[in-house]
Structures are given as C-alpha cells and as structure tokens.
Amino acid sequence: MLKLGEFLFKNRDYTPIPFILIMIYYANVNSQSLIYGSILMVLGELIRIIGVAHIGGVSRTKTYSTGQKLISSGPFSHVRNPLYIGNLFLSTGLTVVSNVAIFFPLAFIAIFFLQYTPIIKWEESNLRNVFGEDFDTYLKKVPRWIPRLTPGVDHTEKIKGEFKKAIVSEKNTLSAAIVVYLIILWRSGWFDNLAQFFQS
Fold it and tell me: Which residues, in sequence order, are CB contacts of 15 under 8 Å at separation 6+?
C-alpha cells in the first residue's frame, strides 16, 4: 500500500488525464451544470489557497518532504487534508460543468478516493517517522476528511498564512483548471452562443 501511495503521489498530476479527455470530448454544458460546477470549482480553489497559505511550498513537491515542522494550524487544525479536499471540489466541479453524464461525477469521486487513500497512508507514514508522537496525537484530534467545526489543536503560536505567496503558488493549478474549463465551454458551443448574443 505504501509503495502504491508513493507511486500515485509522484504521478498525481497525470491520473486525471483520462477524465479530462472524456470531459472535453463529450462536453454538454447547460446553464445548471455551468452554475453548480463553477461554484464547486471556486470553492475548491479557495480551500486550496487557504491550505497552501499555511503549508507553504512543500505542497508542490513530488518527492518525500515533510517540511521543518508539523503544520496543524489554520485549516489543518480542522481537517488533515484540506488541499486534497480542495482538489476534490475543484475537479468534481469540472466534471459537473462538462455535464457528460449523471454518473460521471460519481465515478470521478470514487476514483479520487481510490487514488488518494494510499497516497494519504504513505504521507502519514512519512510524517509519523519524522514527528513521532506529536503526529500520532494530531491524528487522534483532527479528522482525515470531514472537517470538525472547532480546531482540534490549540496553538499558543498563531501562524499567519502567506496568502499572496499562496496565490502565486497556485497559478499552475488555476491556469490548468481555467484552460480545461474554457475548452469544455468551447466544445459545448457556448462561445458561439455568446457571439450570437452580442451580434443580435
């Protein structure tokens, strides 16, 4: 499981490609799918920005790296994997926008959890090796997927999130999402509809 998690972690940028190709080829955007999917995408990206603001550049690595200290402040005091939750909302939003089929977002969510379950187990194993009992205590207080309403960890030292750096760091993720989003709209004929609207 840990070896699989490491492999999937290193290749996590490539595993969505089949879904992206299906979304583009079979895109069938309507007004409802556009609104609901866009809301999910914006929510997902906001979650990612807040998470990256607290965890810093270590979120971009493709190799073993845990940073200098255990991050358990901000969103990480409510849930252990806010970045992956952001990924889930952002990517699911795209599947909803594309409106390929009613089961398509559900299939994506199932594959998402199949992929990220071993990734998280591998990451947690690495963190336990580095931070020991502190990390085990953190695991007991903060849930993996469903955020708790109140912080699970009390902090005497408050970490101020670096949101400007986080937004800059997110440019690749955001750019890729926008490009796929625009291609899906183009494949569905939305740009033609807009052109006709402005010409009328």
Answer: 8, 111, 115
Structure tokens at 163: 């949101």
Domain with 178, as residue range(s), is 16-114+132-199
**185: in domain:** yes
Q: How many domains does the chain have?
A: 1
- 87-132 pLDDT per residue, tens: 999 999 999 999 999 999 999 999 999 999 999 999 999 999 999 9
Question: Residue 103: which of 184, 182, 26 has the closest Cα?
Answer: 26
CA distance linking residue 94 with residue 190, whole number of Å: 15
Domain contains 3 = no
